[in-house]
């Protein structure tokens, strides 16, 4: 296995888009940033040189990093921000992941401009589980904000309301023909008739899940989150922030210009950017181009059924070379509500609903990011940084997806983490709620890929829901869209010691507290056992029984 070295220079760079020029934080002056390209089993060392003006960290999204949380990156979870004027080297250990992942800044909202692809080719000496494509193209879906993204989130948190939305979506940094001043720079993918292309699609957008398609062309999805899928042929995909998809497209249509388009899926009452970004899938010469390229027909922005139908198709390849190993006998089960809430506002003129401010929570705890990183605090025993009190069930039972008044539950705030014993077979049932605004949440876990064994609408029901589980070939991912007012069950084996962040990958929800930390520990202490047991034995036990047994 090879070792690769990269230098990432964080620096302010000027770009002109949407008719105006502004400076953004970039890596090596490019937007999106540079690609990391390795084979499965390789290691990369990336030295980050922070030539910017504030502290930043970088995360390798979806790389499992066995026993290496030290290089994982989320700010104040596994490390302090890298101060301006300094360098920091991270070691990225690639094991079984094959396909596409990405890296991004993991400090406030810096990831809006600081992100790039990670391409993981099959282990040296092996091939793709599909015919070698003729060529490949990375498609990074991103956004352009005319304002400063750091100011946008600061304003939202200070006022207690929703953050501003972006001014354009982008394909490989370009907004495309449908936006002002953008025609000349539209991204064009030049193709030859008859060839097959591997598209590596990354959703690096802050707050919107996206539909993506190419006019007249069938998408054959063969991988997701760097794990292979049974090929699915579809006219469009839905890809959430955090997710990556490997898609084969054969240029088999009459030579012409076809739009590649991405438009939001946003079944929400929150404000969102309801525009589309386009690039051109353009056959090489010898014809007169149409005056306007053809458009794909993507579902409407609120078409939840289209999302459900697509998600249902995802199955692991489950071949001899790429087997699945879904844990069957669960030893640690967590039932976790995922909510947008409100909490009381300090400030009288608060912009949130009902004079409150917007907040978000897991099991009704709105996560507070500490100022000392949790990894260091855990391994060097620094007290009072976090509590090992994240509960296995929510504080009370209610009709999660029913008509819950927005004041039903105000979350508590705290840095509460879950310690899980090494080797545990873990099941997490994420339950969406209708507390504030119900919405689809792309739930993400660091340090692991997990199997999505079940998903459904409404409240999880322990009598009927488990009988629908797919334990044979469930997709193995690092991010999955928990359906609006629905539930999702995922499983993994806690065999990667470390401190691992878990959060919604919609940045506004993560900023409001829809996060927690899983510590998978090899030195599972008596104290950890006691705190887990206490949580289970206290008032919540009855509830746990009602929900899970
Ligand atoms: Cu892309 Cu903490 O995640
Ligand atoms: Cu969310």
Automatic annotation (TrEMBL):
Record flagged with keyword Membrane: yes
A GO MF label: copper ion binding
Plastocyanin-like domain sequence ranges: 11-123, 137-285, 394-519
Keyword vocabulary terms for this entry: Apoplast, Copper, Glycoprotein, Lignin degradation, Membrane, Metal-binding, Oxidoreductase, Repeat, Secreted, Transmembrane, Transmembrane helix
Biological process, per Gene Ontology: lignin catabolic process
Location in or out of the cell: Secreted, Extracellular space, Apoplast
Nucleotide-binding keyword on record: no
GO annotation, cellular component aspect: apoplast
Protein family (similarity comment): Belongs to the multicopper oxidase family.
The protein's role, per its UniProt record: Lignin degradation and detoxification of lignin-derived products.
Protein name in the entry: Laccase
Organism: Trapa natans
Whole-protein residues included: 35 to 583 of 1151
């Amino acid at each position: 296995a090879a070792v690769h070295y990269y230098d990432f220079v964080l620096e302010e760079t000027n770009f002109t888009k949407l008719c105006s020029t502004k400076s953004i934080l970039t890596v090596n002056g490019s937007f999106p940033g540079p690609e990391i390209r390795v084979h499965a089993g390789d290691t990369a060392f990336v030295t980050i040189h922070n030539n910017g003006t504030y502290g930043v960290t970088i995360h390798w999204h979806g790389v499992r990093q066995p026993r290496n949380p030290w290089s994982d990156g989320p700010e104040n979870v596994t490390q302090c921000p890298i101060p301006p004027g300094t360098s920091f080297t991270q070691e990225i250990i690639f094991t079984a992941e094959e396909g596409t992942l990405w890296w991004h800044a993991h400090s406030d909202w810096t990831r809006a401009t600081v992100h790039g692809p990670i391409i993981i080719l099959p282990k040296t000496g092996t091939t793709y589980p599909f015919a070698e494509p003729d060529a490949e193209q990375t498609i990074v879906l991103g956004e352009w904000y005319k304002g400063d993204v750091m100011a946008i989130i600061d304003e939202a948190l200070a006022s207690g309301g929703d953050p501003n939305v972006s001014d354009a979506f982008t394909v490989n940094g370009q907004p495309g023909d449908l936006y002002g001043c953008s025609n000349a720079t539209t991204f064009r993918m030049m193709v030859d008739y008859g060839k097959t292309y591997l598209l590596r699609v990354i959703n690096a957008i802050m707050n919107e899940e996206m539909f993506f398609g190419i006019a007249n062309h069938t998408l054959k999805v063969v991988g997701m989150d760097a794990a292979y899928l049974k090929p699915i042929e579809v006219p469009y995909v839905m890809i959430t922030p955090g997710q990556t998809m490997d898609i084969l497209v054969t240029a088999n249509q009459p030579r012409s210009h076809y739009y590649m388009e991405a438009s939001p899926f946003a079944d929400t009452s929150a404000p969102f950017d309801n525009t589309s970004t386009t690039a051109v899938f353009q056959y090489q010469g010898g014809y007169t181009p149409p005056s306007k390229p053809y458009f794909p027909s993507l579902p409407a922005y609120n078409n939840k059924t289209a999302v459900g139908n697509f998600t249902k198709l995802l199955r692991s390849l489950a071949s001899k070379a790429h087997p699945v190993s879904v844990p069957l006998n669960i030893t640690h089960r967590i039932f976790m509500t995922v909510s947008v809430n409100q909490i009381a506002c300090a400030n009288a003129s608060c912009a949130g609903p009902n004079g409150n401010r917007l907040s978000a929570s897991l099991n009704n705890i709105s996560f507070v990011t500490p100022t000392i990183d949790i990894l260091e605090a855990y391994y060097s025993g620094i007290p009072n940084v976090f509590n090992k009190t994240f509960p296995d069930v929510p504080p009370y039972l209610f009709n999660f997806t029913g008509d819950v008044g927005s004041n039903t539950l105000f979350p508590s705030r705290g840095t509460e983490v879950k310690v899980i014993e090494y080797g545990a077979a873990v099941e997490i049932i994420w339950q969406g709620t209708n507390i504030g605004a119900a919405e689809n949440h792309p739930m993400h876990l660091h340090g692991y890929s997990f199997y999505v064994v079940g998903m459904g609408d409404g409240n999880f029901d322990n009598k009927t829901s488990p009988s629908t589980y797919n334990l044979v070939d469930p997709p193995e991912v690092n991010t999955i869209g928990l359906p609006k007012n629905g539930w999702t069950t995922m499983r993994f084996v806690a065999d990667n010691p470390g401190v691992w962040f878990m959060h919604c990958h919609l940045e506004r929800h993560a900023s409001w507290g829809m996060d927690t930390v899983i510590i998978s520990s090899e030195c599972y202490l008596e104290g950890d056992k006691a705190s887990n047991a206490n949580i289970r034995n206290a008032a919540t036990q009855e509830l746990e029984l009602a929900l899970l047994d």
